[in-house]
Specification:
It is built from nine helices and seven strands. With about 200 residues, the chain is α/β, with parallel strands linked by helices. The strands form two sheets. The protein has a four-stranded antiparallel β-sheet with strand order 4-7-5-6. A three-stranded parallel β-sheet has the order 2-1-3, with helices on one face. It is elongated and about 60 Å long.
């Protein structure tokens, strides 16, 4: 075990950040940090809100476990910076991260490959008028979901039950992201399915 753990070198657990999902990230990162340290790995917390990523090299970190959530953490920004620093990291690369973080772009990719996804209406900036907003339930039916397309952890999400709820739901979503995503409501359990590995070996 010691030989394996030593091969990882000094590991930075990136957690925190400055945006809406900071507290969720700190909880995730703390759990990851404890798990790594319990296995004898030389892991340390690293909060980009308090230290610049350029300090990773100077501090002797050889790889990163990304426990950041939301924009700048999951959208390819940190991944791109680590690529430039030539520091290996966990998770998807720059392109996959940037596409997957944007739910509207992800739905476009899925529909292009004929993969099933809930019907949706995208309300870009400047198209949040009362008339445009109230037309959404006519397309998607009720109830429906309104959410900021580039946030996670259910931040800014509203389940809309009636026409009268739409304007406030859009206002809340737009306070986190100028783009607003409206989706038909799907009844059932929510399941998260992580994928380990790449290609045929995943």
């Amino acid at each position: 075990m010691t030989g394996i753990t030593n091969s990882f070198g000094k590991v930075a657990v990136l957690m925190g950040g400055e945006l809406a999902e900071r507290e969720v990230s700190l909880m995730s990162g703390t759990g990851v940090l404890k798990a790594l340290q319990s296995q004898g790995i030389d892991a340390h917390a690293f909060d980009p809100a308090q230290r610049g990523l350029h300090e990773l090299k100077a501090a002797g970190f050889t790889r990163c476990f990304i426990a950041l959530h939301g924009r700048h953490g999951e959208d390819g920004t940190v991944q791109g910076a680590l690529e430039l620093l030539r520091i290996p990291y966990t998770g998807s690369g720059v392109l996959a991260s940037s596409v997957a973080m944007d739910k509207v772009m992800t739905k476009r990719v899925w529909t292009a490959d004929q993969l099933p996804t809930p019907k949706y209406v995208w309300l870009p900036p400047g198209q949040h008028s009362l008339e445009q907003v109230r037309a959404v339930p006519d397309t998607l039916g009720l109830p429906l979901i309104v959410k900021p397309p580039r946030e996670g952890s259910s931040i800014g999400v509203t389940k809309v039950l009636g026409y009268s709820d739409m304007q406030e739901a859009v206002r809340l979503s737009a306070s986190y992201d100028p783009d607003v995503l409206c989706e038909e409501f799907i009844e059932g359990e929510e399941v998260t399915c992580p994928v380990l590995g790449e290609g045929a070996n995943a």
